[in-house]
Amino acid sequence: MSALNILRTSRPKPTRLPNITRRRWISNDTELIRAARNYLLNLDSSASASALESAAKYESIRKQKTVLPLKLNIEKYDQLSSLACELKTIAENDPDTDMREIARTELGAISEETMPTTITELKENLIKLISPRPMAYSQSALVEIKAGVGGIEAAHFATLLMSLYTRLATRKRWQIKPVSVEHMHSGQGQDGLREAVLEIEGPDVYGSLRWEAGVHRVQRIPFLQTTCAIHTSTASVIVLPLSPPGSEKNVEENLFEEKDLRLETMRAQGAGGQHVNKTESAVRLTHIPTGTVVMMQDSRSQHQNRERAYMILRARLLDLKLRQKVIENRENRLSQVKNSNRSEKIRTYNFPQGRVTDHRIGLTLPRLNDIVEGGETIDIIWDGLEKDEETEILDSLISTTSISK
């Protein structure tokens, strides 16, 4: 539709002139549009060159389903840009005052509503194309919590994190159950959590909880301390994708072979009453190629311990496979995700100041109590991390396009 046809439509005369200077999409999104065009051109070239390979053919078909929406977004962007230029000319040069005012109104609607919506849709479709959401994100998860630096105070912090995720799961209506729990005893009546493994089931659990993987830090005055000194302690969280029930066989075939496993049985250790050290119920499962070791002794049944050990091993190997894929994508400059290094401190819980800071995006919120209760503050942090990841993906594409010029 031409600008002249739009101006001839019956529309109420505006009571005031809109601000037509807010057209940041003209300058800020130019590089993104150029990168999207170049990516589509390269995609067409690579698809025709590798059409004979079955895996490449499947990938090509998958991408073609997401290419069309992106092409439509670019076409709509071009149409709106052309229309905006026509309206700008009318708004500045038309001798009719009413026509100039209507043109300004239409131009304002494009700049503030239609064009931003188109750009948002384009970004979403572009991300789906160059960095599709892994299937594992829709699965359930295993969450491992381990006390870190800080002695018994670190154990108390690990207990707090376990409570946080339990309350979060309740709010999200996820099913949660402990797989393994080991306590730390201080000898002063101050018991804490040394290590725990939680199984959390529900849709998109891993896709959400993956942001919790890393080193968490707490700053607070320890329990029963006579002074007011603030102590710093840490706890680590590992989040692993958990295969849905009934898919274990297929997952095993893809992740490991039985000949690569070493299964050992032994007597359980630690507190546990007369049963401990009487039967060989404990299980140690080792994946020899990667050196991954799983030790399980929580149940008195060797069979149950073996099942749980296999479940955790599958989750760890699947997580390893996903992280290797992230590294490959980064090397291809198609995806860069900061969260792959778990040794980095990701979040600080500051009790004296009542705030929580996520260091990956520099976000500080004065809502410590809410996040400890598993409230919606954690959703705000996750949304910020999602947007940061999307920005990195798009920046990486733009950077690649600039280098290849």
Overview of this protein structure:
- It holds the Pfam family RF-1.
- Belongs to the prokaryotic/mitochondrial release factor family.
- This is Prokaryotic-type class I peptide chain release factors domain-containing protein.
- It comes from Puccinia striiformis f. sp. tritici PST-78.
- This protein is 49% helix and 19% strand.
- By secondary structure, the protein is α+β, with helices and mostly antiparallel strands.
- It folds into 2 domains: 3-130; 137-256 and 288-394, 2-Layer Sandwich (Alpha-Beta Plaits), CATH 3.30.70.1660.
- The strands form 2 sheets. The protein has an 8-stranded mixed sheet, sandwiched between helices.
- A hairpin with a 4-residue loop joins strand 10 and strand 11.
- Helix 3 (30-49) packs antiparallel against helix 4 (54-93), helix 3 packs across helix 11 and helix 8 packs across helix 9 (302-331).
- Residues 6-27, 248-253 and 329-343 have low confidence and may be disordered.
The fraction of residues in strands falls at 15-25%
Number of domains: 2
At the third CATH level, what is the topology name of the largest domain?
Answer: Alpha-Beta Plaits
Largest sheet: 8 strands, mixed
Rg value: 28 Å
Instruction: Kindly state the number of beta strands.
Output: 11
Percent helix among the residues? 40-55%
Q: What would CATH call the architecture of the largest domain?
A: 2-Layer Sandwich
Strand order of the largest sheet: 2-3-1-5-4-9-10-11
Cα separation of the termini: 34 Å
Specify the structural class: alpha+beta
One letter per element, helices H and strands E, the order comes to: HHHHHEHEEHEEHEEEHEEEHH
Q: Which residues form runs of ≥5 with pLDDT under 50?
A: 6-27, 248-253, 329-343
| Overall shape | elongated
Overall pLDDT confidence: 77
User: Count of helical segments?
Assistant: 11
The first-level CATH class name of the largest domain: Alpha Beta
GO molecular function: translation release factor activity
Protein name: Prokaryotic-type class I peptide chain release factors domain-containing protein
Family: Belongs to the prokaryotic/mitochondrial release factor family.
Domain Prokaryotic-type class I peptide chain release factors: 267-283
